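Dear support,

We are seeing what looks like truncated structure output for some complexes. This example has two components. We would appreciate it if you could run it in full and send us the complete token output so we can diff it against ours.
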Amino acid sequence: MSELATAATAGHTERSGSLWADAWRELYRNPIFVVASVVILIVMSWAVFPTLWTSTGTDGGTCELVDSRLGPSSEHIFGTTFQGCDMYSHVINGARPSIIIAVLVTLATTLIGVALGVIAGFYGGWLDTVLSRITDVFLGLPFLLGALVFLALLGEQNIWTVSAVLVVLSWPPITRIMRGSVIQVKALDYVEAARALGASNMSIIFRHILPNSIAPVIVLATLYLGGFVSAEATLTFLGVGLQIPEISWGITVAQGQDYAIAGYPHLLIFPCAALIITVLAFIVMGDAMRDALDPRGR
Amino acid sequence: MGRYVLRRLLQFIPVLLGTMFLLHYLQTVSIQINGNPITALFGDRQPPPQTLAAITTAFGLDDPCLQQTGNPCLGMFLDRMSGYTQGDFGVDFNRQPITRLIADAAPVTVRLTIIAVLFESLVGILAGVVAGIRKNGFADNFIRLSTTLVISVPVFVLGVLVQIGSGLYVGVWLRDNGAPEWLSAAFSVTYQTDHPWASLLVPGVVLGAFSLGFIARLTRTSLIETLRADYVRTARAKGLSRRRVVGIHALRNSLIPVVTYIGIDLGALMGGALVTEGIFNIPGVGGLVFGSVAAGETPVIIAVVTMLTLVFLLASLLVDVLYAVLDPRIRYE
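Here is the complete output from our reference environment:
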């Protein structure tokens, strides 16, 4: 994509367009970023079109208890689970809840965080004080501990409640970063110039503040995607996330844990590898984006 | 600095009350929606209504506001706060004071956390310094790669894999080859009361691994930035040895954000301790929360999490104040 086209599709002012275009040019020439994106696209396709990858269907196929804990073979390339289900199909289908939760929660937290951060940073005053103290209250709960308590007390655990709890606990850092970024941009000369030209608050926010202050939030959101995949699996592993018969990497690892000690390591290796590779791809992508969007880090 | 510390202390009070209220409100809403938690004690065989009512009253869960969905039950909140100030955190379903349960469990978790913090800060800072002084060299690339990998592995995955690797393969090999008892305890699958430090070594390393990655990266970035500073150039121009410039001049200043991170990290360590203690069967505070979640003992969950949150908030306060002491540039706006 040419520099001009990127700037045009991004729809920003020329100044910010060149920042994004620079970043994009650096990113697609970075082999690590390209590999991470390909991995993420593959995992996304597991989540959206699992039937492309496995013929057993989205419920993990039929499970024969006779086939319990078989090692990898030509019929079951990753072996079978404790219940005799095909491990490969479980690994593919386990991506869906993780990816749905990660994407949903990241979108929601980014929207909430950006909106509140802009309000607090741009308007300041008592609004900022109140919003900042509320942010502090939610930041006061340690993340995993808070998620565990919320889910345990809710008593109902499915994709929607897990997502809701993760949103409640993870909007504060984005709000804080956005607020700081907005305060920094607000003091710049071109905002002053726009105001002198008679621009309204709304047009200043959307045309000048937002495009120039959102970069750190986008980097954090990418890192968040990996974090939420990991958080969903952890909560599910602890028994307060998704429940059987849902297929999820956290459940597969929890079930495999006891039998792996008894000498069936493939029960752990494949779901753990899928989880680690997915989280790793998101984190590497976030790091690459930070390097590209934040020239100070170079 | 005094003004900053004062403002930080004043801000602490509403945040503390707000967080406590959040936890309280969560519990009341959960009771209002899901019904009396006492019924969960009995499962399928429910006692006669009179007995149930008596037990409910004994646990202070008979307040009529618990019948009205959405009611914040401020009266109950005030009672609870005055109980907390007198050290009364309620009782569990066996009528054991929760403070005693925590007092029994806390030393184990404190030991686990000490091991984790020592491991993550010693190894993390060392790795960060090695990477930072030779930017883009082999060691730097290796450390960057391995820290990214460590950050990407969820604690429970690392715990499960390490438990099998160290407990099963290394542990069995050590036992067969007549290693001393404390050494095989260090590589056992579960916690052993006879070896309160050695058998927490591997779980502590698992717990600290995630933050180790962050500390190494933070130290590296911060050191690279400091090494560019004018005063470092001046020190070099004076003819000071490289060791002294890096070790004394640069490192001291670049460790400020690292110290802050280690303090804030306590919250992540508490969550991680929950997972690690669950996997390695460690009877600590995390194990207590884990057990009460499984048993549906809401009073215990709320009390323990409230206490842990208090510890976390106090640690964050301390770190912020310490930050102002360490770095004279920090002023309140």
